[in-house]
Amino acid sequence: MPLEAEAFLEEASKRSTRVTKEDVMKGQDPQGIPWSTLDTSRAEYRQNRLHNYMNYENLREDHQVQSSKQTLEQEINQHPVRQDAEMFEFENNERLLRSSIVHFQLRNLVWATSPHDVFVTHVNEIVHYSYHTETTTAVLSLERMPVSLGRVQISTMAVEESVCIAGSFYGDIVCVRVPHHLSAVDGRRECSGELVYCDRITVDDNAITNAIVIWKPRGNSSMQAVISNNDMNVRIMDIERGFTETNKFQMPWSVNYTAISPDGKLACVVGDATEAVLLDMTTGQRVGECNKHLDYSFAAAWHPGGNLLTTGNQDKTSRVWDIRTMRCLATLPGKIGAIRSLRFTNDGKYLAVAEPADFVRLYDVADNMRSCQEIDMFGEVSGISFSPDGDALFVGIADRIYGSMMQFRRSRKGLLSNLDLCP
Question: What is the DSSP string of 87-110?
């Protein structure tokens, strides 16, 4: 884009901070992009993006992988998907809330704790935004923490209840407790949480914290941090006991994401490999493997029912597996790049699939992933998150000019849906 056009857009972006559903109904672009004043239409720019966006693949030069892509296309075609579903409706786009991406492959930088409370990584801070008070509050700042290697960048994060955890490029983990009624705080810009833990958990030189999941085992009141690291380890750490390491699984490759089954018995581990590995959480033994992807995986998610598992890969697909038979039920294609984030609603009705940029898709689980709603926007996706009640979906967009947080609410049709879920 020419510099003159960028300057114009930057100036235009300052005129308002929020685009509402009422604005969109009047014809405004959801991201506030003034297409009528530009020398290209939205449709033309979309085609240019689809043509020019480069999807990153670690195994691009692998001849065996290239020969398997035809088979991949056949698998995708065996599971046709309708893109006419209306599951969530655009609510607003808040441009005061901008997210930052430090590592291009790590996109778990948005977490919602209610339909009106969302946390996001911005530079070296994790900030909270309240849609009630329209206030942005810093809750965790690495600038103030005694981290091991000076200036540390946040590579991933997780928030659950009152616990907020940040992971860094060098294996530092910082955890704070967030005030319970943060959404009621009005006019306070800095309200750093109470420090719970701050230390480096590995001495390995290749120690990027790739993902953090906060997990609460059934029958156990103590929350656990499940930490996936580039040093080829998954660490289970007890948050309530000062991040005491309660378990550790070593893999033969860098671990990019770990998802725990709803019953807490299995861990799905994905990383710099084509396979997704299922581990017994008690023994650490490998008990299963999903191996049909063609590149490295960076996302995984369990359906709340426990029998369905999804994995997201740089081969531009997400796969849905029945773990009882280890059979792939559906191969869902991306449009522009790798699948970087996967989330189910807590009621199990919907699956959200995020690409690195421009596209998030919602699938109807009750329809066996055969109906889909496509969210089409412009910009790198920093993360996606459903609110715990499943009523809201948040999509973070990292962009110099149009960085923002898009909020969607479950449509009336979705609220009234009472179809049985897949097993």
Answer: -EEEEEEETT-----SSTT----E
**Taking the model in full, what pTM does it have?**
0.91
Q: Using alpha carbons, select from 373, 275, 366 the residue that is nearest to residue 328.
A: 275
- Check if the beta carbon of residue 295 is closer than 8 Å to that of residue 311: no
265 touches 247 (CB < 8 A): no
The predicted-structure confidence for 63-100, as pLDDT tens digits, reads as follows 666 668 888 999 999 999 999 899 999 999 999 899 99
CA–CA distance, 126 with 336 (Å, rounded to integer): 28
212's CB contacts (< 8 A; 6+ apart) are 108, 156, 157, 158, 165, 167, 173, 225, 226, 227, 228
State the greatest distance between any 2 C-alpha atoms of the chain, in Å, as a whole number: 61
Which amino acid makes up residue 205?
D
Please tell me the distance from the alpha carbon of residue 211 to that of residue 103, in angstroms, as a whole number: 12
**10-residue stretch averages of pLDDT, the chain, 423 residues long:** 47 67 95 93 96 92 72 93 94 92 95 96 92 90 65 88 92 90 51 84 93 90 94 97 96 98 97 97 94 96 97 98 95 97 98 98 96 97 97 96 95 51 34
93 to 342, 360, 364, 396: CA distances (angstroms) = 21, 15, 24, 10
φ/ψ of 90, rounded to 5, equals -60, 130
How is residue 318 written in tokens? Answer: 């997400």
CA neighbor of 379 nearest in space, from 361, 351, 360: 360
Length of the chain (residues): 423
Tell me: the pLDDT tens digits for 303-359? 999 999 999 999 999 999 999 999 999 999 999 999 999 999 999 999 999 999 999
Order of strands across the sheet that contains 308-313: 297-302, 308-313, 317-322, 327-333
* Look-up of token digits 């699948």: 339
DSSP single-letter state for residue 371: B
Output the CA angle 324-304-278, nearest 5 degrees: 45
Question: pLDDT per residue over 382-398, tens digit each?
Answer: 999 999 999 999 999 99
CA–CA distance, 363 with 350 (Å, rounded to integer): 6
Q: Which pair of structure tokens corresponds to residue 333?
A: 């294609």
Give the integer Cα–Cα distance in Å for 204 and 248: 15
Q: What is the 3-state secondary structure (H, E, C) of 28-89?
A: CCCCCCCHHHCCCCHHHHHHHHHHHCCCCCCCCCCHHHHHHHHHHHHHHHCCCCECCCCCEE
